[in-house]
Amino acid sequence: MAPQPSAPSVSRSGDRAGGRPSDRRRAWLVTVMIVTFMVINFADKSVLGLAAVPIMDELHISNSTYGLISSSFSLLFSLSGLVVGFFSSRMSSRSMLFVMALLWAVAQLPVLVVAAVPTLIAGRVLLGAAEGPAASMSMHALYKWFPPERRGLPSALQISGAAIGTLVSAPVLTWLITDFGWRSAYASLAVISLLWALVWWRTGHDGPYDETRPARGGSPRPVKRQPYRRLLLTGTVLGSIASAFGAAWALALAHAWLPAYLRTELDMSPNAVATTISAISALSLVLLLTVSPLMDALKSRGVSSRWSSGAAQGSAVCVAGCAMAAFPFTDGPVIRLLLIGVAFGTVAVAIPLHYVTAAEVVPAAQRGAVFGVVAATGTLPGLIAPFVTGHLIDAADTASSGYATAFLIAAAVMLLSGVSAVTAIRPEQDARRIGLQDGQASSPD
């Protein structure tokens, strides 16, 4: 393994005590690599949904079976995110992200050998296991390069990789699927994942804000910990999980069923579907690049995290839930598409902010593990929502009524999750209560 760059000294408050230009350049290089990592991550997630109609037609599978294939992605997703999170303090982020990207490439191969339901499921299960820790561990890796007061923009950029991934992949993958067959999209993603892994191995390093590494001069850093039970039961962490859960329900439907809904219920062409999904992703990207820096600006003006980031993420999920409940019953095509954009695009705001709020009540040495728990529980809708939706569509009198029922259930989940987040997230209060104010933490019980 290549040697890690020496870390500049860091004060107890987390400020850089004389950051060097080379460190700043490396921080933004790592940020670019991690954004690209997330772009590939969401392209991998999107490919099945974009290819849903041709795959279902070629393999003669029902909506329920397709829903099962889509849900299989999340079979090990949450578990792997949880397990890797707890091992994150013992492994370098460089190694973890490298292995994940290699597994993404391997996961695309089974369906290229034999196109069948079992190989589709096998590939999605492996991909889900390899992508389960991706968002939380890449955010953890990113936080090692920035102090707490400078994490808003890097966090937004990291999550914007998801929006960019869908924005770029929708037209590109649709072109591959339409002109060269859906297998070509899987093959292309395998090659891209492999190339990213090779570049990351040469450029990716853990940053100076990694409290699991020795400080400059070789002296050990004091590692301050709290009992995990105490951290996970704070209102802030529970509220962060709630906002993640509501957002993930919408995102699961977007990846699994939105392309099929647009094609079969709104009678859109493949290119029109790709354009619509790209437009939704563009909305998410604009919101991510606007809201998160705004939250940093509000904090710098003395606005509490409860209102600057806690209320913002919960409100975003609530607004998206209201749009989700409305669009199935709207007749005007323009209004319906606008509501679809709000329903599936606005929830992106919650993703970086729920990591930001959770990080404020967690010691840095335990951050990866807690991020793993937040990701594991917050993304459980990926296991539930696609399969339930497929079953509802098959069981309903018409596909349209099945979709409407599925979207109403999603709206109810999102509204409940958003209200819970607004009510429960109070980072300053929870940090004082568990002894983390000013970066101090008591010993574990």
3D architecture notes:
Helix 1 runs antiparallel to helix 10 (182-203) and helix 15 (305-326) packs antiparallel against helix 20. By secondary structure, this protein is an all-alpha fold. The protein has 21 helices and no strands. It is 73% helix and 0% strand. It is globular.
Oligomerization: single chain
- pLDDT under 50 segments (min length 5)? 1-18, 214-221, 438-445
Instruction: Specify the structural class.
Output: mainly alpha
- How many helices? 21
The main pleated sheet reads as: none
Radius of gyration: 21 Å
Strand content: under 5%
H and E order: HHHHHHHHHHHHHHHHHHHHH
Helix proportion range: over 70%
Average of pLDDT: 81
Cα distance, first to last residue? 36 Å
Shape: globular
Q: Tally of extended strands?
A: 0
Which properties best describe this structure?
disordered C terminus, mainly alpha, 445 residues, 73% helix, disordered N terminus, 21 helices
